[in-house]
Design a protein that fits this description.
GO terms for molecular function: manganese ion binding; RNA binding; RNA-DNA hybrid ribonuclease activity. It comes from Winogradskyella eximia. It is found in: Cytoplasm. Its EC number is 3.1.26.4. Endonuclease that specifically degrades the RNA of RNA-DNA hybrids. With about 200 residues, the protein is of the alpha/beta class. The protein has a domain of about 130 residues: Ribonuclease H-like superfamily/Ribonuclease H (Nucleotidyltransferase, domain 5). The chain contains six helices and five strands; from the N terminus they run ββαβααββααα. A hairpin with an 8-residue loop joins β1 and β2.
Length: about 200
């Protein structure tokens, strides 16, 4: 099924999505994108449906052909303080705040969002596989986050973030068990299956 360009009747509609919500380490990253109404790309889809190679090929195309885009990381310490849902929404708000012109409608992947300024919005479950602007935001969020994880991989190569990007793979959990945690790990997350709350 072809992805649609517009959800609302507003001419400056932005799509927003995040990446890295389920990770044990690294930031949660959101992007917001306003696409022109004549935008077409047969390869663009939800970033989870695309290979890493395709995502990185699409990234410069989206950045060049969009009207505007923004990307925002929210890091571990803030995730631990305000929780991952609030951090995801804050990252989306931060990415929307970078858009110029300001959008007059926001479509959000998923079912949770807090109003941004007084701009009307709609949440759309699986929106990244239905609307091009959300798909574009999902690609930018994922590629910018992956690039960041590859940089911090150099600092702590034993966790192999270059490969697992901070997700809770067996290998990542085994490395946590062996080496402990780093400053990039989310301390509020269940980092190991047998981890219990500390008695305080």
């Amino acid at each position: 099924m072809a992805l649609k360009i517009q959800f609302s009747s507003f001419n400056l509609e932005c799509g927003t999505d995040e990446a890295g919500r389920g990770c044990l380490a690294g930031p949660v990253t959101a992007a917001a994108v306003i696409l022109p109404l004549n935008f077409k790309n047969i390869f663009l889809n939800d970033s989870k449906q695309l290979s890493e190679k395709k995502r990185f090929l699409l990234k410069p195309i989206i950045e060049e052909e969009c009207i505007s885009f923004g990307v925002q990381h929210i890091f571990e310490s803030e995730i631990d303080t305000i929780n991952i849902l609030n951090a995801s929404i804050k990252a989306m708000h931060g990415s929307i705040s970078q858009l110029n012109p300001i959008p007059n409608y926001i479509i959000v992947d998923g079912n949770r969002f807090k109003p941004y300024q007084s701009i009307p919005h709609s949440t759309i479950v699986k929106g990244d596989s239905k609307y091009l602007s959300i798909a574009a935001a999902s690609v930018l969020a994922k590629t910018y986050r992956d690039e960041f994880m590859e940089i911090i991989h150099e600092e702590f190569p034993m966790y192999n973030w270059k490969q697992n990007k901070g997700y809770p793979t067996k290998e990542h959990r085994a490395a946590i068990k062996k080496y402990g945690i780093t400053k990039y790990h989310r301390k509020s997350f269940r980092l190991l299956p047998e981890q219990y709350q500390l008695d305080i």
